[in-house]
Every structure is written in structure tokens, then in C-alpha cells.
Amino acid sequence: MTDLSHPPLPGALPDKRQVAASFSRAAASYDSVAQLQRDVGGELLRRLPSSLLPGRWLDLGCGTGYFSRALNGAFPQSQGLALDIAEGMLHHARPLGGAEHFIAGDAERLPLQDGRCELIFSSLAVQWCADFTAVLSEARRVLQPGGVLAFASLCVGTLDELRESWRAADGLVHVNRFRPFSAYQQMCAASGLRVVSLEQCPHVLHYPDVRSLTHELKALGAHNLNPGRPGGLTGRARIVALVQAYEQFRQARGLPATYQVVYAVLEKPL
């Protein structure tokens, strides 16, 4: 990773066009394997201020619209906007409803007017944004004074078991990179938004075997999108080495996959 006080260097995070294409391809399979996404988004909803009654909310990185529909249920009198960079996700989400408008757009350059929303909700999307400072700046611009940005993201330590197992197998880049939690702390503190809460919480899933985990990552569209990833098919010998290395992590419940989740609630000053 780069110096914590600066945006990631070019090539440190996946190209957003590859991210959009990958998640578009995964739209049909996403919800069938999105238990982590549902758990994290549900926890983020619970962290919203109890007094919050937005007239208009934005689901930033809405994906299949699961939490657009949840926000619509939580705030039935509000107008909902759902935005995603992946057209395939929007095509999937629109017929299911939940938001008044589904918008193709980039979190780093929101196609919305200043002061448009009282709530921006973003669950497990902004980890794919190379310029998170721009995301925060855009959120501040689009929020009304007193409005809330609530986001969940992933940080360093995510999928470390898989990362270490691949390192033992061939030493190549197979697992997505994420920012350190300290970078989120620094950027949020410098954003001009008031930090209501910001914490890192581990979330561990268990799998019967490595194939189940890698199949789920592919179905989510969240498999390896890193620059420097190996091209072509992965050889049988490397797969055997990966499986043997990952077995060293096995627990009673299965093979663990740890996600280090960042939960944040920020408020635009009045």
C-alpha cells in the first residue's frame, strides 16, 4: 500500500472499469451468495442515528438493490436514489424497486446536485474506489447540512488466510488489496465531516473447502481484480499447494475467511 496520508498510487487498487464489468457479470448470482453483504449492511443500518428521518437518501454502490429496498422500508416517506457504477447491477435492481431513481454513476464524481440528500448509505462499495478522498468530498457536497454519510468498507487483514495460503503456493497476487484502517481514520478526520463513529470489526465466515470460498468470491464479482494478478488458468500443482496451505487454518467450523470491516457514521456540520 501507499503512504497513508496520500491517495493510493495508480495500480494499487483495481481499475474501476474492471470492477464495473466484474460486478455486472455477477448480478444474477450475487444475491445467492451475499451473506456477508447482507450481514454487514444490516449492521450498518442499525448504526444509523435513531433520530434520522431523511427526506431523500442515496444508496451509494447499490448493487442488486437489496439495501435500497431495506432503506425504502425503513424510511417509507422518503425519496430514494440508488447509484452504481455497474450497469448490470442496475438492470437487475430496477425491476425490484426500492428507489425512485436508479442511476449509473461513479462515487468519486457523483452526478447529483449540491445538498441533494440527508443520508448517503454505502455498504461494501467504497473499498473499490481508488480515490477515497474524492468519495468523501463528493459526499460532503451532496449532503445537506446535518446530513449523514454511513459507510461500511473493507481494510487490510481481509482474506488474510487466503492471501497467506496463495503466498505459500506461488507468491503471486491472487487476493484483492485494501487500505489500512489507519488510512480511513486519517481521511475521515480530514474530510470536513464530523466523525460520529468509526471502527474496525472482524467478520469471519467458514467454508467446507477452498473451492466453496473461491466460487463464492467469483459469484460475487469480488474475485481477484488486482493489477499484477496472474493471467491464464491456475495450474493444478498450484491449486494443490493452495489447498494444503489453507488446511493449516482449518477450525472446527471449517476453513475461516476473515473480513476486516470498517463501519463509519459521519455527519456534515450545520
The general outline is elongated
CATH H-tier superfamily of the domain at 16-158 and 176-206 and 258-267: Vaccinia Virus protein VP39
Please state how the strands of the largest beta sheet are arranged side by side: 3-2-1-4-5-7-6
Count every helix, treating DSSP H or I runs of 4 or more residues as helices. 10
CATH architecture of the domain at 16-158 and 176-206 and 258-267: 3-Layer(aba) Sandwich
Distance between the termini: 35 Å
> Low-confidence segments, ≥5 residues, pLDDT <50?
1-12, 26-32, 223-233
Structural class: alpha/beta
Overall radius of gyration: 18 Å
Q: Would you give the CATH topology of the domain at 16-158 and 176-206 and 258-267?
A: Rossmann fold
What does this structure look like?
- The chain is of the alpha/beta class and 270 residues long.
- The chain has a domain at 16-158 and 176-206 and 258-267: 3-Layer(aba) Sandwich (Rossmann fold), CATH 3.40.50.150.
- It is built from ten helices and seven strands.
- It has helices spanning 16-25, 27-30, 35-46, 66-74, 87-93, 132-142, 160-169, 181-189, 210-220, 236-246; strands spanning 56-60, 79-84, 101-104, 117-123, 143-154, 194-207, 255-267.
- The chain has a seven-stranded mixed β-sheet with strand order 3-2-1-4-5-7-6, sandwiched between helices.
- α1 runs parallel beside α5 (87-93) and α7 (160-169) crosses α10 (236-246).
- It is elongated.
- The chain starts with 15 loop residues before the first helix and ends with a strand.
- The relative contact order is 0.18.
- The model is unreliable at 1-12, 26-32 and 223-233 (pLDDT under 50).
